[in-house]
Amino acid sequence: xxxxxxxxxxxxxxxxxxxxxxxxxxxxxxxxxxxxxxxxxxxxxxxxxxxxxxxxxxxxxxxxxxxxxxxxxxxxxxxxxxxxxxxxxxxxxxxxxxxxxxxxxxxxxxxxxxxxxxxxxxxxxxxxxxxxxxxxxxxxxxxxxxxxxxxxxxxxxxxxxxxxxxxxxxxxxxxxxxxxxxxxxxxxxxxxxxxxxxxxxxxxxxxxxxxxxxxxxxxxxxxxxxxxxxxxxxxxxxxxxxxxxxxxxxxxxxxxxxxxxxxxxxxxxxxxxxxxxxxxxxxxxxxxxxxxxxxxxxxxxxxxxxxxxxxxxxxxxxxxxxxxxxxxxxxxxxxxxxxxxxxxxxxxxxxxxxxxxxxxxxxxxxxxxxxxxxxxxxxxxxxxxxxxxxxxxxxxxxxxxxxxxxxxxxxxxxxxxxxxxxxxxxxxxxxxxxxxxxxxxxxxxxxxxxxxxxxxxxxxxxxxxxxxxxxxxxxxxxxxxxxxxxxxxxxxxxxxxxxxxxxxxxxxxxxxxxxxxxxxxxxxxxxxxxxxxxxxxxxxxxxxxxxxxxxxxxxxxxxxxxxxxxxxxxxxxxxxxxxxxxxxxxxxxxxxxxxxxxxxxxxxxxxxxxxxxxxxxxxxxxxxxxxxxxxxxxxxxxxxxxxxxxxxxxxxxxxxxxxxxxxxxxxxxxxxxxxxxxxxxxxxxxxxxxxxxxxxxxxxxxxxxxxxxxxxxxxxxxxxxxxxxxxxxxxxxxxxxxxxxxxxxxxxxxxxxxxxxxxxxxxxxxxxxxxxxxxxxxxxxxxx
Length: 784
Prior knowledge:
By secondary structure, the chain is an alpha+beta fold. Helix 2 (72-85) runs antiparallel to helix 10 (348-365), helix 10 (348-365) crosses helix 12 and helix 11 crosses helix 16.
């Protein structure tokens, strides 16, 4: 602080003291009985001024109320109430006010958000990475100009950025700081933004910029604001607004973390009295030691759900902070039934801005663009965001981008493979009542209006891009999963050194040729190397298709009656140790079943199985029980040829388990034959049976007489008859049914009858021969 400024403050303080003494004497004489009214913080004590700083971060155009996000009108009402409690209150933001917004704001290029924050009296904001979503020129022109118009303040104060420089220089590209006068104090705000901006936005939009060290910029400007030179700005209190933060929520962990943000908290100039953070959408309220002692460090969640409040008691004479405190103020409260109620009254003027924006968005957004068969999700298998896992939405959007850059209407060289970044997916596609997808629903999925770009990559570069899903050490997120189009698949291991995660890549079912060149499609952000996917930027023959991602999605829905989610499993964990498969038997007989037992699964895990080169898909496999076991039958049809086969057990996002087994032919069953007829032995007498006549009927067993009642049943002639009450040893061996006995008797009768006739014929022949011989003999004698 300059000497002149110090003398001015001391004089003002002395005059204030004399005035208080004089008026106090008069008031004491009056002996008033009125209750004391609440005075402003600047006059609560003669030796300090209470400065209240209230802030948001990562608002992202959430102008309408939605559960804990109370909306812009309630946010403005809260600021108004806090200002009524202390006139020395300033409203600030740690960045990402716009971009990745809900449809009511995004459909109108975030103009409603800028207008609403302006009407709420936002005093100052640091630039966030999303302020660059449409490029630097859009930010410093349209966005900044609109904020100035909405607030009557310098528009540049909406986008402070002390570490944002013109490319290749240290020349500031944005305003580095802003000063506000309140309660007789000069309050300086320094803005710095994450050094990861080049990997978070489309590189082409910030090609004229370079992003420097936050720590260096913060310390440089803090020194400038406290060097006693009024010409370069002076401040009694200095506050750092950083669009950077911690993923931790515990203060000791935040204070100790080995990151650029951790260094900033510990090493930022001791002249800085408080730090407001953002970017990580976290919530914490800490006191962390810097070079000159502890100071408040706060982040206030996201989407206007919370106001972070830092109170500083400041000596107006010296600018010294005598005491500090901090808290987070929720703007809405949930009751036991899940209903949310605003904690502050809504500002009517801001409520009108929001209502007008919603009305306009409804006209545009209610149009149906297509239908889906079921939920299509960005967080794996559950609604919500998870950028580190494979998702049906990521794969579906990749398929859409591939279609848009390879269908018959595409004028360029058709793409073969497409990729989609997880961070570009900002909402799920939910089935709802009937699967209808509106223009608003499609726009909320991809709100950044990126164009689609095609370019060449070798197979080796595709492998490199897949490896880059595991982010560099020190990155905000450890992994950013890519959505990939149909035809491309790979296996991977999570726990591996950098560059060694990917194990096997296939394209259209065959190993990817790393020397071959492929035509690839991605949005402009990803194609430019965004999210640290530098392999894409190293591709050749980049060609911007001119198709905006949202337009491509709408056209895809028009071309397909119903869109189903693209399946998971294009990325699969390598290795087959996720389960154990046992077959019984391992040598199956054709026409029988094989029992398959799978163990080691997660409870309720669902698997699939196939065999015989996919000819058999096993249906109805039960989910794994509490022990992680499931059991099912593999049918082996009788038509299966003997040989060696494989059972393939699959689980989504896992490498298949292949188990060998064999099939043998079923044994040949003997053909049943009739019982052999009884044949008489040579020693048996064969009695000729004459042709039966009427007179013989009494002897025919089939024509019983009255006397037959006492006659025994006829039996096989080779088996002696015996008393039925005393069966013989032979009877126990040859016992058969009555039907069999009757058949044997009939067979034997037929045999005897035939043998009798043969005997008669033979006798006739012999007799004829004898007669012929006698005739010849006597005939010869007579002739002599």
